[in-house]
Amino acid sequence: MDPSEGVYQHIDSTKEIWKALQDMTLGSDRDRWSIHEHAREVFQKDHRTCLVAMGLNPYHQNPAGLKVALPRAWQLTGKVESQINNNGTVNFYFESEHHILMVMEKAPYTYRGWLVALDIWSNRSKPDFLRTIPFKVKILNLPNMYRRPEIVWSIGSKLGHVKEVLIIEPTVNRAAEVSVKIDFNVDHPIILTKKVEIFTNTPPADLSFRYTGLQKFCIICGSLRHEFEACEGATLLTQRQMRLLDTGTNPYVTAEERSTAIQQYLASRKEGETSRNTAATQTMEEEATVGFITPAGTGVMSSAPTSSTALPAPADLTDDQGTKRKATEEADEE
């Protein structure tokens, strides 16, 4: 045995002992320190022109990537400082308030296809801090007679907090356009179509909505925070439906193939809903059916309700879920 080995072990042990002793509270009973006034002034100045960014899907948006990608998207590379926070958000420090206004005016932004929430640092104590995305939403298929500000505002208010109503009248070369600018809650699902009753006793309007700047979202539940493979609703899909969604989001197939896959998926979901509605109706009819039985040894007929048997779940809900191919993630946005 090397005689020096024990000495080295003793030295390593001593280091650990004294490292642990630094956890003592020496100095805590003495006068407290105060930060220099100049440091406070610089801190306050920095945070007057500070934006905080948060990726809505942390599984695909890491803070380090946000730190690099967003200044590129803003065309402010080299003109903005940044710092990653413990909660996964990123602070961006701008040279002027003008740059902040310019950035906010062009929102929303995405990183790797998923949306990024932005807010001013001074709003951090507000309940809606980093909770909204500014969207311009086009409202399609609204009948001509209902293109009025209050009607449009009422429809838009179902999507989020309405900041502005925009109605562009038709011309010879351009169709009419109706849209709203809203603050959309990041935890609410994206709504793409909806039947809207404008007046009672009149047929509802079948409206569609298109969100400017929206890219990736869950195509099962509409969430902005996860892809469809991670959705709880995916457990109710068949293998075929999962394959169709896989094809419908695959960048390596043609647009026609993607469109066909999505149409087939929607048709399969509609068929499933029809089957479930039919099964529910049959169950209700069976429960309401009255059967006649003859008690043994008598000639008297008596009536009693037949027992209903629970119907098995539709086959398209009980198949095992398939595993989706993971496509290559997009490069950092410029």
Textual characterization of the structure:
The chain is α+β, with helices and mostly antiparallel strands and 334 residues long. The chain has three domains: 37-123, RRM (RNA recognition motif) domain (Alpha-Beta Plaits); 132-215; 237-284 and 308-324, no CATH class. It has helices at residues 5-20, 37-48, 63-74, 97-105, 149-157, 239-248, 255-288, 315-318; strands at residues 50-55, 80-84, 90-94, 109-111, 114-120, 132-140, 161-168, 177-185, 193-196, 205-211, 290-293, 302-305. Strands 2-3-1-5-4 form a five-stranded antiparallel β-sheet. A five-stranded antiparallel β-sheet has the order 7-8-6-10-9, with helices on one face. A hairpin with an 8-residue loop joins strand 7 and strand 8 (177-185). It is extended, with a radius of gyration of 31 Å. The N and C termini lie far apart (62 Å). The model is unreliable at 290-324 (pLDDT under 50).
CATH architecture of the largest domain: 2-Layer Sandwich
Number of helices: 8
Helix fraction by DSSP (H/I, runs of at least 4): 25-40%
The end-to-end distance, rounded to whole angstroms, is 62 Å
Count the beta strands.
Answer: 12
Number of domains: 3
- Order of strands, main sheet, comes to 2-3-1-5-4
Gyration radius, in Å: 31 Å
Provide the CATH topology of the largest domain. Answer: Alpha-Beta Plaits
Structural class based on helices, strands and sheet pairing: alpha+beta
Query: What is the arithmetic mean of pLDDT?
Result: 85
| Overall 3D form | extended
- Order of helix and strand elements from N to C terminus: HHEHEEHEEEHEEEEHHEEH
Largest sheet: 5 strands, antiparallel
Uncertain spans, ≥5 residues at pLDDT below 50? 290-324
